[in-house]
């Protein structure tokens, strides 16, 4: 169990990225004797480490620290480091507790958490929910896996502030007492199987989001996703299902084109779904989830509707970039798995030139390939996963495939092939790590290349 008073405690922080540096700085400020370790060199981590200048700590970079009983009192692991790595195994064998940044943030927070997880839609739902609370006049902070480590802010926020956190399965693997007032699971489809190995283990990691909830907490679950629906039987919290396909006896759902909330004998209309600013079936799912979570914490249907009418979406998720010569360019760089790209393809009725590829995270492209055959006029492939994707698409009888050597060639080739009325869609169905630091860098380059088109 973590002790909040860490003055003079020896703490090993694993990972020198955004999360690890935030944790190291936070603990150093509390008087802990911090050692930061990363397999990368100081030169590779130079940008991240700048935030730790003038903070007293040791660095073990490009090498592993020696681990034995008593070496450290605690360790904090960054979410990108798998728990089955040799260093983590040594920590476990030495009896040194291993925790993560999200658990650490919870330990020091006075504010209630609303935590959102799922394979797809987390960032949009998290941002939308944060905006709903802000528009309703509620103090709110949005962070977590969305980009701002929670640990950097929690102690400065009032007890009335609502912390809306995007939470990944990697972060949930290391929680201990983390207990969100509202937990949201959007969907669970194959992803990160290179790390979690099986869907059962991946689902188990996701479901940890509600394991510490109590009877007066709320768990918002997607009724349309059978794997998520079944989790309603195991959460200790009160379940609020949401659905765009089924009229629920209790929950939030769509009836006759109207988002509707039904609790007890009360039925409340929220909004005509055609008036929701962000379009697409996947975004309706996100809107239902955000509305349900907000309702759990007392936001009125009228206030929820106001935000849904005006919220424009988030960068790198079906983001409009430019229209040129009758061709629309869309950045969906955050589409890092096949299910996400399926949802992106389903959002458009126009012919699509799809740019896809990157680093495969253990995904199967068969279902995506079938939809590419149905929806795409051409497929431009780039990155490590290109051969696997090409094989899957050709097996579906689709042959209008154009592999390219590097990402810089994708947009110019798409422009040459595009006809007025087409959509050029970057939705890679893969991680970015083979060519970029993250999906944001990939999306930013796409936008730069599009804006440079004559």
UniProtKB/TrEMBL annotation:
Entry binding sites for ATP: 118-124
Keyword set, alphabetical order: ATP-binding, Cell cycle, Cell division, Cell shape, Cell wall biogenesis/degradation, Cytoplasm, Ligase, Nucleotide-binding, Peptidoglycan synthesis
Cross-referenced Pfam families: Mur_ligase_C, Mur_ligase_M, MurD-like_N
Source species: Dehalobacterium formicoaceticum
Reaction equations catalysed: UDP-N-acetyl-alpha-D-muramoyl-L-alanine + D-glutamate + ATP = UDP-N-acetyl-alpha-D-muramoyl-L-alanyl-D-glutamate + ADP + phosphate + H(+)
Family, as annotated: Belongs to the MurCDEF family.
Pathway in which the depicted protein is active: Cell wall biogenesis; peptidoglycan biosynthesis
Annotated ranges, domain Mur ligase central: 116-294
Protein's recorded name: UDP-N-acetylmuramoylalanine--D-glutamate ligase
